[in-house]
Write a structure and sequence with these properties.
By secondary structure, the protein is of the alpha+beta class. It folds into two domains: 73 residues, no CATH class; 79 residues, no CATH class. It contains three helices and eleven strands, in the order ββββαββαβββββα. It has a five-stranded antiparallel β-sheet with strand order 7-8-9-10-11, covered by helices on one side. Strands 1-6-5 form a three-stranded antiparallel β-sheet, with no helix packed on it. A three-stranded antiparallel β-sheet has the order 2-3-4. The longest helix has 12 residues. It starts with 6 loop residues before the first strand and ends in a 10-residue tail after the last helix. It binds zinc ion (ZN). The site of zinc ion (ZN) has 8 residues, from loops.
């Protein structure tokens, strides 16, 4: 199990309004069990959210915690020794809204890329632990209920990952 400081923390996205400046804050004293979105009312939505709904949209391996009065998600940090190209493939995916969940090991690292929501894009990349290079990947651009695509080698995997998008976040 990774320790707490092996996570990278960032602000949790609101599953309803998907507003980039939305913050999820603990409910008032009457409803301490729920979270309030600071932006849902501006979009005509109800601001009350069940933490279980937010958790259900995040990939396995991501943790939630209130830090600094705001709900944040902790994503397992990338292992050391990756090539610059490997890092850039993963970073570009996370900049487009995919979550990267690393599972380091002594021989081969795995990284899961997942869009929020049950039907979002999903990919698995295997990286050599010693070389830090991408070995192979399997991707499911339209969720894991639809047949996927495989690729081998850094360049082919990079192109495959670049084709994955997060639907539903850019619009609205
Ligand atoms: Zn919201």
């Amino acid at each position: 199990m990774p320790t707490a400081d092996s996570y990278e923390w960032r602000t949790a996205p609101c599953p309803e309004c998907a507003d980039p400046i939305a913050r999820l804050v603990p409910g008032d004293s009457d409803r301490a069990d729920i979270l309030l979105c600071t932006r849902c009312p501006a979009h005509g939505r109800i601001s009350y959210h069940d933490p279980a709904d937010i958790r259900a949209r995040l990939p396995f391996g991501v943790v939630l915690a209130v830090r600094g009065g705001v709900l944040r998600i902790g994503v397992p940090a990338a292992p050391h020794g990756l090539t610059a190209y490997t890092r850039s493939v993963v970073e570009q995916a996370t900049e487009r809204g995919l979550f990267a969940v690393w599972r380091p090991s002594a021989r081969r690292h795995d990284v899961i890329l997942a869009a929020p929501g049950p039907d979002g894009a999903w990919a698995w990349i295997q990286v050599g632990a010693r070389s830090g290079r991408i070995l192979r990947a399997a991707a499911y651009p339209h969720g894991r209920n639809v047949p996927g695509v495989r690729a081998a080698g850094p360049r082919a995997v990079g192109q495959l990952v670049a084709s994955l998008s997060v639907s539903g976040l850019s619009s609205d």
